[in-house]
Amino acid sequence: MSTPLHTRRRTAAVEVPARLHDAAQTRALDREAIAAGISGFELMRRAGAAAFALIRQRWPKARRIRVFCGGGNNGGDGYVVAALASRAGLMVEVLAFKSPETLAGEAAEAVAMAREAGVAIVDGEAGLDQPFDADLLVDALLGTGAKGAPRGAYLRAVEAINQDPAPVLAIDLPSGVDADTGMAEQAVSATLTLSFIARKFGLYTGLAADYVGERFFDDLGLDPRLLASGEALGRLLEPAMLAGYLPPRLPSSHKGHTGHLLVVGGRPGYGGSTIMVSEAAARVGAGLISLATDACHLAAALARRPELMVRGVRSGLEIGDLLEAADAVAIGPGLGQGAWGQGLFDKVLERPGPRVIDADALHLLESRYAGLRRDDWVLTPHPGEAAMMLGCKASQVQADRLAAARELWRRRGGVIVLKGNGTLVVAGENETDVALCPYGNPGMASGGMGDVLGGMIAGLLVQGLAPFDAACVGVLVHALAADEAARVGGERGLLAGDLASFARRRVNP
Q1: What does the pLDDT look like over 214-244, one tens digit per residue?
Q2: Binding residues for AMP
Q3: Which residues lie across from 355 on neighbouring strands?
Q4: Taking each helix axis from N to C terminus, what angle separates 105-116 and 40-58, rounded to the nearest 10 degrees?
Q5: What is the mean pLDDT of residues 446-461?
Q6: Mean pLDDT, to the nearest integer, of 467-488?
Q7: How confident is the model over 107-120, as pLDDT tens digits?
Q8: CA atoms of 426 and 178, how far apart (whole Å)
Q9: Can you count the helices (H) and strands (E) in the chain?
Q10: Measured between alpha carbons, how far is 386 from 398 in angstroms, rounded to an integer?
């Protein structure tokens, strides 16, 4: 084995990423802020001011604004926005879907502020039938406490917003999107979503991407120490983190210092997957890469990447020396679940040390090693594979992606990478053991993307990164590379093989 990660001492600490909260944790932060001496109405006033400032910034020509208000604090934020817009000379109409007279506390104060500013407040259902020709719509219908699909008048309001051609600003979250899971049956399709105090976990995963539009965040000027206190679900992966995990290499570095990866897989007809794994690992900096595959793929692998050391193998008995030389293993893509794949997988599991297990290897793990739990592997299922491992439907995995990933970790240990919109990296129950990637694009909906991700994670493992760190950096680099590739050539037609060269730029921050 080599001595990985021959690098300069880190010159900067790893960036502390933004925290992600569920609805209950967000309410706890609200209470902490109030206990610290900021009134509930002052928080509402700040939220409304932040929203109106964003309106003036993004839609400076908007003159007619229609605000959809429900009850509670979310509706109160909407009334404050309406009051500020009216004071600025804009034509404003509030459609009230809960009678203003029934509101209490801070929301009632916001209604009084809107009335004092001359805002027209009309019954919501009646107002839906009255044309307004808005330049902008503001969604302040349902807050973080709402669960399930909107019903009754609220559902009709959501449908009316989505049918209107005007752009939409969602206050805190689009009505109908679950703040905790990102699930949505029917929800407002926002142009922008502005969240306050805490970043809601559900806005970054699940189906939320179809509804949130651009995401903005405002901490309302609260003490950073307060925002750092209390519980959170996890943390966001951010580009600024990369420099801390990928310091410059020493001038004396050589390939023996930068890790040796063994890639295993590629039955006849499926050799492309392991070639992409290998190439991705090379592009993120792995020093040496051996590929054990079916002999029919030798020529293709060497033609594509002559830097690889490729061996045609007939069984697991032929990879003992390769395993001995490797710092980590990536197995699964194109492996198959027949005798050939089983033999190779069994041999890989005999070896201690880090490994990335993906695709067919996940099926073999579930069918042949039920109950096996290890700390040295990274499992990278997509929702369908996660459902297979959990004995449920993919729709159930998607309904609460974090719960599914945590349950996989409880059963299997190591690091779980649950792929999909808002890819999750989970290695435990604590906030610092959960990371979510907010990057990536629909162009990644093409074959081989998961293979490339596995290669990047494995390529970082052999350079000495801990499994959780390698998974986080690999997921982040993979998504950022895809976004850059899409900017250059568009989303449609984006291929998995396009990502490797863009990833190289990201691992040299």
Answers
A1: 999 999 999 999 999 889 999 999 999 999 9
A2: 419-423, 450
A3: 329, 377
A4: 50
A5: 98
A6: 98
A7: 999 999 999 999 99
A8: 21
A9: 19, 19
A10: 10
Q: Which of 331, 244, 346, 322 is nearest to 281 (CA)?
A: 331
424 φ/ψ angles, rounded to the nearest 5 degrees: -110, 140
Annotated binding site: 73-77, 139, 143-149, 154, 172, 175, 334, 382, 419-423, 450-451
CA–CA distance from 154 to each of 69, 238, 290, 334, 505 (Å)? Answer: 10, 35, 58, 48, 47
Helix then strand then coil, in percent of the chain rounded to 5, is 45, 15, 40
From the list 358, 413, 411, 354, the residue with the least C-alpha distance to 380 is: 358
**Cβ-contact 499, 481 below 8 angstroms:** yes
How many degrees, rounded to 5, is the angle at CA 158 between CA 156 and CA 163? 95
Could you tell me whether strands 234-236 and 19-21 are parallel, antiparallel, or unpaired per DSSP bridges? antiparallel
Take residue 415 and report the two structure tokens written for it.
């690091």
Cα separation, 432 vs 439, whole angstroms: 19
Q: Any idea which residue has 């809601």 for tokens?
A: 200
Helix (H) or strand (E) run with residue 192 in it: strand 192-196
pLDDT grade for 487, boundaries at 50, 70 and 90: very high
Residue whose structure tokens are 């004995």: 391
Sign of CA dihedral 304, 448, 17, 193: positive
Angle, helices 105-116 vs 72-87, to 10°: value is 20
| Binding-site annotation: residue ranges for (6S)-NADPHX | 73-77, 143-149, 154, 172, 334, 382, 451
Greatest Cα-to-Cα distance within the chain, rounded to the nearest angstrom:
82
Residue type, 475: V
CA atoms within 13 A on the CB side of 398: 15
Buried b (16+ CB within 10 A) or exposed e, 404-415: bbbbbbeebbbb
Which domains are seen in the chain, by residue range? 19-232 (3.40.50.10260), 239-506 (3.40.1190.20)
Residue 416 CB neighbours (<10 A): 28
Burial class of 394 by CB neighbour count within 10 A (0 to 12, 13 to 18, 19+): middle
CB 457 within 8 A of CB 474: yes
DSSP annotation of 204 = G
Q: Give the length of the chain.
A: 509
Per-residue model confidence (pLDDT) at position 4: 58
Lowest mean pLDDT among 9-23, 90-104, 179-193, 413-427: 9-23
What's the Cα-to-Cα distance from 363 to each of 163, 263, 335, 398, rounded to whole Å? 44, 18, 10, 19
Beta-carbon contacts of residue 76 (< 8 Å; ≥ 6 apart): 44, 103, 106, 107, 109, 110, 111
Kind of pairing, strands 377-379 and 415-418?
parallel
